[in-house]
Amino acid sequence: MDKQQHSVFWFRRDLRLTDNAGLYYALKSGLKVLPIFIFDQNILDKLEDKDDARVTFIHQQLRELNTQLQEFGSSIIVKYGTPTQVWENILNTYNVAAVYTNHDYEPYAKERDEKLLTFFAQKNIQFHTYKDQCIFEKSEVVKDDGKPYVVFTPYKRKWLEKLQPYYTKAYPTEKYFENFVNTSKLEIPSLEEMGFTQSKLPFPDKVYQDILKNYSIDRDFPAKEATSQISVHLRFGTISIRELVKKSMDKSEVWLSELIWRDFYFSILWHFPHSAKNSFRPEYDKIKWRNNEHEFKAWCDGKTGYAIVDAGMRQLNQTGFMHNRIRMVVASFLTKHLLIDWRWGEHYFARKLLDFELSSNVGGWQWAAGCGVDAAPYFRIFNPYEQVKKFDKDLRYIKKWVPEFSDPFKYPKPIVDHKVARERCLATYKEALK
């Protein structure tokens, strides 16, 4: 074992060296810092697609981090395995005094960190975690009586009241980069060693400021390049939430509101962890879903005969991204027109979305199904034809993703009649909620 004591910084959803809360405190700890990352087998083993683009994205970012660390004579230790196994290995190799990392709010992550807290305590190792991936967390924005908000608008009001320059100030990690452990460049396990292959999906860059000026005007039109697509970088922490909020404050109130929604959903999942798998409003679990597997496959494949729905699903399948307006349309169609359990759709999005975030994904799907916090009422059912008229009247988006749309011999007829589906949905929901 290395006799010199170290601090360890554990990268997780924060794959950057700059403005990183936990890394800042690790580098200031007074000990040399070992950076590590764990490809968590408990997570990876559940992924269905061996060319999962998110694993490729993380792998690329780690190689980039390694190159950056080499500039300071350091490198990142990357391991594949379960967290407990990896930490046993690390502690057998290095003399670790403290472990630093950033908070994660998902149920699995909370359970993992609670077990590791005990594990480290038994070995007299301090375990420090910090807020980094959101502006306000847990119970920092709650009602005056201490209860969590379950409606967005008052949450947003309190969030904005609480916001001060302190909360968007960057952590100056770059002042302490000399405190990384000096080591030669370490090898990163290949994707193939972990049972994965390289994804061919393109990844968006981190350029977002150009769209902020007209974001509120253009964001609902899917044919326009009017959204930032920054979400994958936010999801894996290759960019700081503090930077994004600070830049948006005087440029786009609507874009800032989207970032606040993200904090809101983090808060909901933290306070109501049952909502990850069950309806936030339990009465909605009484709905008798049809769950027709053939119709579900048609939805997944973008072959429902509703062009705006099919365009969205094909965009998702081919790029790992879907325009936010279209996410609402396809989710409403699945849950309302086809009466398929929102969890089926949530799981498919979780499998395909580059920017998959459990809290936001569950929140969005429950909103569409009417069973979540601040949800759309169940009788609000998106009319796909009206959505086309409002947001893609020139059919630019549809023709891009459904090129056979104009050919009645190639494009399928609608798998369900809108009017019939709407009435069936209203009757089914009404019966469940009476």
Automatic annotation (TrEMBL):
Keyword Flavoprotein part of the UniProt annotation: yes
GO molecular function: deoxyribodipyrimidine photo-lyase activity; DNA binding; FAD binding
Binding positions (FAD): 215, 227-231, 255, 258-265
One BP term from GO: nucleobase-containing compound metabolic process
Matches recorded under InterPro entries: Crypto/Photolyase_FAD-like_sf, Crypto/Photolyase_N_sf, Cryptochr/Photolyase_FAD-bd, Cryptochrome/DNA_photolyase_1, DNA_photolyase_1_CS_C, DNA_photolyase_N, Rossmann-like_a/b/a_fold
The protein's name in its UniProt record: Deoxyribodipyrimidine photo-lyase
Superkingdom of the organism of origin: Bacteria
Species annotation: Pedobacter cryophilus
Site (Electron transfer via tryptophanyl radical) location in chain: W289, W342, W365
Entry keyword Zinc-finger: no
Cofactor note: Binds 1 FAD per subunit.
Keywords: Chromophore, FAD, Flavoprotein, Lyase
Domain named Photolyase/cryptochrome alpha/beta: residues: 5-135
One Pfam family hit: FAD_binding_7
Cofactor: FAD; (6R)-5,10-methylene-5,6,7,8-tetrahydrofolate
Family assignment from sequence similarity: Belongs to the DNA photolyase family.
